[in-house]
Amino acid sequence: MSKNDVQTYEYKAEMKQLLHLIIHSLYTHPEIFLRELVSNSSDALNKIRYRQLTDQNILDKDKELEVKITVDSKKKTFSIEDNGIGMTKEELAENIGTIARSGTLEFLEKMKKENKQGEKLIGQFGVGFYSVFMVTEQVMVETRHADKDSKGYRWVSSGEASYTIEEIDKKNRGTKISFTFKETANEFAEEFRVKQIIKKYSNFSDFPIFLGKEKINTIEALWRKRENEVKADERNEFYKFITNDYEDPLGYLHLSLESAGAEFKALLFIPVKAPFDLMRLQQHKTVQLYSNKIMIMDDCKDLLPEYLQFIRGVVDTSNLPLNVSRETIQASRIMGKIKEMLTSKIIQWLQRMADKKQEKYLMFYKTFGPLFKMGLNSDFTNRQKLIELLRFETSTRKAGDMSSLKDYTGRMAEKQKEIYYLAGDNREYVERNPNLEYFKKNNVEVLFLLEPVDVFIMPSIPEYDKKPLKSIDKGDIEINPENDQAQQKEDNLSKSLMGLFKDTLKDKVEDVKISKRLVNSAVTLVTGSNAVDPQMERMMKMMGQDVPASKRIMEVNLDHSVIKNLSRKYLASPSDYFLKKCIVQLYESAQLIDGELPSRTEYVKRMMEIMEEATK
Ligand code: ADP
């Protein structure tokens, strides 16, 4: 491209829709545009600062890093200029001409339908720049990359269908964005308004922000102060600044630590809300790494184990040289040490919260539990502490009441030797599980595992307080040891009836047994002692893994009137075909309750035949 050669580019269809959405309905506070632009400038400045540490061969290498804003209240114009890293022509087209992440549009549309406030989430999607179209009809971006042989470019768009790019003379490195306000946005052409907004959202920016000649932000490394020197308001503002969150955090942890060669300060936060897609760690940010007040990484995932990567905030250490590469950071021993110390402090923090601020802890647990609990399978050093932090609903407490394993064992009757649990998709579903009947009747408490990850972590806890943990879905649980009622019932008639069940169901089940656990239901399906938990089996199938379906054991309740009737019929005519039909129907009813019925039509057809027989 030679100078004065203006090229026009069409936005992709998806981009047009996105722009329309942003401009007309996503944001409810137009002032956000300023926060987004300042935040982009800060990012660009951070990038150049980092690059300067290792590479002196750049444009304007000795210039002070800063952001300059100008407004003209008469002409209603605005500009923001930084001497950050700038953009190449390709970057211009790629970064601000397309949507960075696929799926963004669908997600934002859904959000709009649900009437959520867009700006609360917008920062997560890398479309912040477009918020300027709320306050103007047309935007001009002039930029030059920090590479010495770079050229300057001008990008202009009115946000509707297309943008243009042309080569320009630009002496200095960095980016300038300028535009004229729409009439509805004229208030932002006033200096006091701009100042107010910067104070509100960008006060903690690492770089000086000038409005005209006046520097309007205070640059402060809050984490370097003592905890009691920082006001709650300041801390919350700081949190909002680094996360772009709208709400105050759920809690914070202020640390200043020194041990065995690692020294660091940290100010950490737990957000109230989880990021979109909590479990996809690559897609959301965690903590920033500073070296002596200078940010060297804006998202340092190596500082925390995966299961704690919902934590936000800043870690600042003087042990790392400024000019280290990212690879060195990752491999450094100091980093490992800091990670270890952080992990242990964060767990203590959660433990304190669980002890002293239960409600808060449960809020945390509900929001971040699915990720946090995974720590049980990966962090063996802190495993015991993590186990203490688990919470469950249980069969003897009302829905929503959460108990720890300690609470549970504290309530156990002396003769109970095991801890029982039952997994299922929701409370209603587990409450209906026939395997729970015995426990309910005898007032034995059962933990409910209502979250999908629970079935992955429980098998890794074989016992707590010397008491084995057992799924009541399993065939081998030791219940009712004193009362051998079931044993006595194993008379000849029952035995041969069980034989008929086995003959009828054949390969469908591993075995048929007389049940000790059923009270109201006629039959139930349980898992063999070595088989995969059915909940786990379903999860694995959902994740597309091949699981050989393990056969279940059918348990029969001899006290149930249907079974009694079948018994009587069996005595009268052992080879009655109707008996077999009923047995298959009982088996499939149990499958139905477990959500595993293979054919509904067969099931209903057979039910009709049985009803016909009964109403004859
Ligand atoms: P996000 O900042 O969340 O990625 P934006 O839409 O605000 O999303 O910006 C898109 C991209 O455009 C940025 O990631 C960055 O690469 C580039 N960009 C925006 N503003 C600047 C700037 N002032 N200097 C350099 N690059 C910028």
The total count of strands amounts to 22
Largest sheet report: 9 strands, mixed
Shape: elongated
CATH topology annotation of the largest domain: Heat Shock Protein 90
Main sheet strand line-up: 1-6-5-4-7-3-2-8-9
Helix content: 25-40%
The first-to-last residue Cα distance is: 91 Å
What is the helix tally? 21
| Ligand list | adenosine-5'-diphosphate
What is the CATH C level class of the largest domain, in words? Answer: Alpha Beta
CATH architecture of the largest domain: 2-Layer Sandwich
Q: In terms of structural class, how would the helical and strand content be classed?
A: alpha+beta
Structural Rg: 32 Å
Mean pLDDT: 88
Low-confidence stretches: none
Q: What name goes with the CATH superfamily of the largest domain? A: Histidine kinase-like ATPase, C-terminal domain
Can you characterise this structure?
This protein is of the alpha+beta class and 616 residues long. It folds into 4 domains: 7-215, Heat Shock Protein 90, CATH 3.30.565.10; 222-359, Ribosomal Protein S5, domain 2 (2-Layer Sandwich), CATH 3.30.230; 390-471, 3-Layer(aba) Sandwich (Rossmann fold); 485-614, Up-down Bundle (Four Helix Bundle (Hemerythrin (Met), subunit A)), CATH 1.20.120. It is 37% helix and 19% strand. It has 21 helices and 22 strands. Strands 1-6-5-4-7-3-2-8-9 form a 9-stranded mixed β-sheet, with helices on one face. A 5-stranded mixed β-sheet has the order 10-11-14-12-13. Helix 1 (13-26) packs parallel to helix 4 (104-113), helix 9 (333-356) packs across helix 10 (358-372) and helix 17 crosses helix 20 (577-593). The chain is elongated and about 105 Å long. The chain starts with 6 loop residues before the first strand and ends with a helix. The model has no long low-confidence stretch (mean pLDDT 88). The structure holds adenosine-5'-diphosphate (ADP). Adenosine-5'-diphosphate binds at residues 36, 40-41, 44, 82, 84-87, 95-96, 126-129, 175. The site of adenosine-5'-diphosphate (ADP) has 16 residues, from helix 2 and helix 3.
